[in-house]
Amino acid sequence: MVAPPDNHVLRAHALHYATSGTPVLAGVSLGVREGEVLAVTGPRGSGKTTLLECLSGRLVPDSGQVWFRSSPVHPLGAAARERLRRESFGWIGTEPQLVPELTGWENAALPLLLRGTAPRAARTAALGWLERLDAGDCARGRPASLTQAQRQRVAVARALTAQPSVLFADDPTARLHSADSASVLRILTTAARSHEITVVLATHDPGVAAHADRRFALLDGRPADPPADRDSGAGDGPAGGNDDTEGRTTCSLSV
Ligand SMILES: Nc1ncnc2c1ncn2[C@@H]1O[C@H](COP(=O)(O)OP(=O)(O)OP(=O)(O)O)[C@@H](O)[C@H]1O
């Protein structure tokens, strides 16, 4: 096993994953640089969610390697992967998946409370992020009383409150209207950049991918445009669609 280069916070090498005998990922390699916003793009069913799940330790690939900084993730057992996710990773899904019995701030504070942070400090941090995300008015409401966009803002606050090293966002705005989508994405990416949180963002929407620094395109579980030198790690080099792009969205917000 070879540890990733220093400037990669995450690295995957030759990932294969199949479900019911059908290949979902078929030899995917990529590196994610510290602090970047990387969009994993591709049509529906191309394997984006599965790739994020393998990178984040939610799924164990059938073969291949995943590294987080200088530590291998793929050989870890379930408890160690869960600890890694709790301590170092955040996840925002397409659906907010909030706890219905808890208020907005309680939902946003949950990762800190699970880590053992004192309730008062967890509450202060959660309220701070809700305010920064223009969701201060969601603090006292339970999820059922909030709109879809408000619930997703609470989910974003929950992910950021934990100050993850890497935030995985799986089509986080797919259920939002375009104005809400643009606003949530702008706030999410601005907050991540100002707090040096690496983001891996799955989307099939080029408008969403435009918020990222770089794109990695999948097609049928493979890199859509692999670099000529695959051993150097697909998605790392200046080749094809998996390349540094000028997609970074200029934003004056300070979150
Ligand atoms: N648990 C599972 N059981 C059966 N098939 C699965 C499972 N997970 C993924 N698949 C299949 O693997 C393929 C890739 O799924 P995946 O969700 O990773 O793609 P995606 O690019 O994220 O798609 P979408 O944009 O629709 O979310 C699809 O054909 C999907 O049906």
TrEMBL record:
Molecular-function GO terms, alphabetical: ATP binding; ATP hydrolysis activity; transmembrane transporter activity
Keyword Nucleotide-binding assigned: yes
Keywords: ATP-binding, Nucleotide-binding
Entry annotated with the keyword ATP-binding: yes
SUPFAM superfamilies in the record: P-loop containing nucleoside triphosphate hydrolases
Pfam families named in the record: ABC_tran
Region (Disordered): 219-255
GO cellular component terms listed in the entry, alphabetical order: plasma membrane
Family that this chain belongs to: Belongs to the ABC transporter superfamily.
Protein name: ABC transporter ATP-binding protein
